[in-house]
Every structure is written in C-alpha cells, then in structure tokens.
Design goal:
This protein is of the alpha/beta class and about 300 residues long. The chain has two domains: about 5-110 and about 185-305, 3-Layer(aba) Sandwich (Rossmann fold); about 120-180, Histone, subunit A (Orthogonal Bundle). It has helices spanning about 15-25, 50-55, 75-90, 100-110, 120-135, 135-145, 145-150, 160-170, 200-215, 220-225, 240-245, 250-275, 290-305; strands at about 5-10, 30-35, 60, 95-100, 190-195, 280-285. A six-stranded parallel beta sheet has the order 3-2-4-1-5-6, sandwiched between helices. The longest helix has 24 residues, at about 250-275. The chain is globular. The N and C termini lie close together (about 10 Å).
Length: about 300
C-alpha cells in the first residue's frame, strides 16, 4: 500500500493549523508546512506562524527554517519536501501537510512544470526595473505577453511576475504554454482536505486576525525589517502596507485597512486556486474536528483499495 499525504488547504485565517495539528495527533504523525511566507525566521507575526504551544503540540517542518536573505524557490521546496517525505514515510503511514500557498502545495502533490533555462541577465534587468519603475510596469508587460497566466496569479507578487516574464522574454513563448504538462507520478497517495466557510465569515476572521497581529506587535516587526524592504520575501501583504506608513506615504489606519483588503483579495484567489482540484474533500470550518475523521477515514479506505 502506498503511503498517504493528507494535504490541508483553504484560505488564510480559516483554521488550517488547528485542523492539521488535530489530524497529526490522531494519526500520530508529523506536519509539513507548505506556507511559503512562514519559511522565514525574521517574519513571525505578519505570517501567522504557529504559536509556541501549537508547535509543541505536533512536530512541524519547514517553519522559519530560512532567512529572508536566502534565495529559496518553490523548486527548492519541492526537492527538500520530497527528500523529507521519503524519510518520514519510513516511520509513518500518514503525513500531514498544511498551507495556503497553492503553488507550493502543488509542487509536492503534483510536481512542478518544467521550464527551459533562460539568460540570468533577463531576471537581473527585471529586478532592476522593479526597483526603479515599480511593479505596475511589470504587471502591464505580463498582461500583454501572457494574459492567460496574468489573470490567474497574484499580480502584486513581484517574484511570480518576474518568473513569468523571464520565461516569456527568454523563450518568446507565453509562460502559460509550459504549464500543465505530464509530470512524474508520486510514490505516495494524496488526500486533499479543504476547509471552507461563507465568504463573510472568512472576511471577518481575516479582519480579526489583522487586528490581533497589530496588537501582537506587527508594526514593530515591520519597523525592524524596513531597511530590507526591497527583498523579495518582504513583498507581501502585511509588510508592504506598513512600509508605506513607515516611510510617511500613508496614515496608519489606512495601512491597516489596506492589509485587511489585500488579505481578503488573497483569500479569494486562494479559493479560486484550490477549487480547481476536483478531488478535494471540502469540509466546513465549523464542523467538529472529530466529525472530520469519518470523512477522512472513508477516503483513506478508498485510497487503500486503489
């Protein structure tokens, strides 16, 4: 029988961490984080890293294991996660993975698309253009070169924009033309559990989380990172808005409202991404954790019979 990776997905602030810990304890196993924002040790409050008690409740991997100065790609994560899973599956029949970064989840569960190598100078030029002209220039260019991919991504993520643009410019072909090609099968089976809720509930949970982050010291954390604000890792919701306050461009109340708005937009994109997987078992976030087990146990039995 193949080993089973239970992947817990869903929008930000919906309760993925608590569900993953419950499942890890039930199956007496460990957790792999596929939340790319939580990789960086300098970013704790703004990325909602699991609390000390949550980390003690179940063993976690890929939490704050990198620095914002490290160049750590989704391809690096795929390789590292597969190596670790090979080790973990020697001890466990089931491993839990949790995270809302759809591309990173897919990297482990399905594999990444293969892209041709392009001249490194293209990326260097795009990064220079980002610094001098701003992200809007890159957004407009990608929309022109590959509108199909542009309409599916977080257009405020400069790393994604630059990655797609360097392929478009280096090959003369749309980035999207390299996507969804056949990939090697995994040596484990995947059961994806998606947490869902009414949009109004998700948005209210997001608003509450942002307020809690501010109380916990998110502004102070952003101030400590302001000198490094141009790093790719910091081009993310929660930090870039506060950087605009710190440099005097915005009022604090407006910056906080923008964090909430941009996080809500991000959650909407997460739903869109995860809904594309037709095999996902969707469960309401308010369902008792013990009730989730019936659904999961049934699906695991189906996987065992494949």
């Amino acid at each position: 029988m193949k080993k089973i990776l239970i992947s817990v997905v869903g929008p930000t602030a919906i309760g993925k961490t608590k569900t993953a810990i419950f499942l890890a304890n039930y199956f007496k196993t460990v957790i792999i984080s596929a939340d790319s924002r939580q990789f960086y040790k300098e970013m704790r409050i703004g990325t909602a890293v699991p609390t000390k008690s949550e980390l003690e409740a179940a063993q976690h991997h890929f939490i704050q294991h990198k620095s914002i100065h490290d160049n750590y790609s989704v391809g690096d994560f795929e390789k590292d996660a597969l190596v670790l899973l090979d080790v973990l599956f020697k001890e466990h029949d089931v491993v839990i993975m949790v995270g809302g970064s759809g591309l990173y989840v897919n990297a482990v569960t399905k594999g990444l698309d293969a892209f041709p190598k392009v001249d490194k100078g293209i990326r260097d030029n795009l990064n220079s253009e980002l610094r001098t002209k701003g992200i809007q220039v890159l957004q407009h260019r990608l929309k022109k070169l590959d509108s199909e991919y542009y309409n599916t991504i977080d257009e405020d993520n400069p790393h994604r924009l630059i990655r797609a643009l360097e392929i478009c410019m280096g090959t003369g072909l749309p980035y999207s033309s390299f996507l969804n090609k056949p990939k090697p099968s995994r040596l484990f089976q995947v059961l994806t559990v998606g947490l869902t809720a009414e949009r109004a509930i998700v948005y209210e949970r997001i608003n509450q989380r942002v307020d809690a982050m501010m109380t916990q010291g998110l502004l102070q954390e952003a101030k400590s990172l302001y000198g490094q604000k141009d790093l790719n890792a910091l081009q993310t919701v929660g930090y870039k808005e506060l950087f605009n306050y710190i440099d005097g461009s915005w009022e604090l109340d407006f910056a906080i409202s923008e964090i909430k708005k941009n996080t809500r937009r991000f959650a909407k994109r997460q739903f869109t991404w995860f809904k594309k997987n037709e095999d996902t078992v969707w469960i309401d976030h308010a369902v008792e954790k013990t009730d989730i087990l019936d659904e999961i146990s049934s699906k695991i039995q189906e996987l065992k019979n494949i």
